[in-house]
Amino acid sequence: MSRIVVLLVLIVGLLAGGVGTLALKPGIDESEVRAIAQQVVAAAPQPEAKLDKSAVETIVADFLASQPKQNTPQQVAELDASQLNPMIEQYLLDNPSILQRVSEALQNEVATRRKAETAAALAELRPDIYEDPRHIVLGNPQGDVTLVEMFDYNCGYCRQALPDLATLLDEDPNLRVILKEFPILSQGSVEAARIAVQVSETKVDYWSFHQTLFTSPGKIDKAVALKAAADLGLNPITLEMGMNTPDVSSVIETSYRIADKLSITGTPTYIIGDEIIPGAVGIEELRQRIANMRACGSTTCPATPAQPG
Question: What are the structural domains of the chain?
Answer without folding.
Answer: 3-66 (no CATH), 127-296 (3.40.30.10)
